[in-house]
Amino acid sequence: KQEVTQIPAALSVPEGENLVLNCSFTDSAIYNLQWFRQDPGKGLTSLLLIQSSQREQTSGRLNASLDKSSGRSTLYIAASQPGDSATYLCAAKAAGNKLTFGGGTRVLVKP
Amino acid sequence: DTGVSQNPRHKITKRGQNVTFRCDPISEHNRLYWYRQTLGQGPEFLTYFQNEAQLEKSRLLSDRFSAERPKGSFSTLEIQRTEQGDSAMYLCASSFTGGESYGYTFGSGTRLTVV
Questions:
Q1: pLDDT tens across B53-77, in order?
Q2: Among A10, A33, B64, B93, which one is most buried in terms of CB atoms within 10 A?
Q3: B84: helix, strand or coil
Q4: How far is A8 from chain B (nearest CA, A)?
């Protein structure tokens, strides 16, 4: 059974600092890994999807890497802004086509 | 297409009442998923459909829960005899069938509060 873990559960940084968010998964037989952003009381917004055959994906200030052999993915957010404050969730898609989510990392970027 | 739409956004109900939520997926997507998220946790899988067929149900989906997707379009999730433990955000997502290339698109969710 796939288990996804995100550490730390919460992170606070000053504006301008780079953010590094970690995600680990136990079963490396994944199809892809998706990073989401969730604002309080809202749904999930997809940020990046990394296919199992890829090592990384980039979109603007966001970069996500994937290392299947070690069961890890990292989301980097460059030059953080107060608007980046949210909860970030990673989710692994495996056989059966279900997404298994981590518990999320709650990020606060202080002006 | 405006994405995945969920209604209502919020629902407050008394314990013991029945509630029904609706999800309209992206029209081109043939898969539809329901997830439940409690405060401070990641979403947990409940069930999914491919077209109108319900292919898998989680053990979290007790016999008080039922989901349908008539004609493979919108889906409804009904909870009968609601309990306070049912209070959560119910999220719907849709996707294409496939392996690594396709991700999920989520709706804004329905927040259920059972009082």
A1: 999 999 888 899 999 999 889 999 9
A2: A33
A3: helix
A4: 13
- Burial (0-12, 13-18, 19+ Cβ within 10 Å), A34: buried
Q: Which long-range contacts (CB under 8 A, 24 or more apart) does A71-74 make?
A: A71/A24, A71/A25, A71/A26, A71/A27, A71/A28, A72/A22, A72/A23, A72/A24, A72/A25, A73/A22, A73/A23, A73/A24, A73/A25, A73/A33, A73/A35, A74/A20, A74/A21, A74/A22, A74/A23
Q: Which residues pair with A50 in a beta bridge?
A: A33
Q: What's the CA gap between B3 and A50, in Å, rounded?
A: 21
User: Mean per-residue pLDDT for B21-30?
Assistant: 94
Q: Residue holding tokens 């989906």? A: B61
B42, B105, B108 member nearest A103 (Cβ): B42
Give the span between the Cα atoms of A83 and A15, in whole angstroms.
10
Query: What is the tens place of the pLDDT at every residue in A50-106?
Result: 999 999 999 999 999 999 999 999 999 999 999 999 999 999 998 777 899 999 999
CB pairs under 8 A between A and B: 70
**Looking at residue B84, what is its pLDDT?**
96
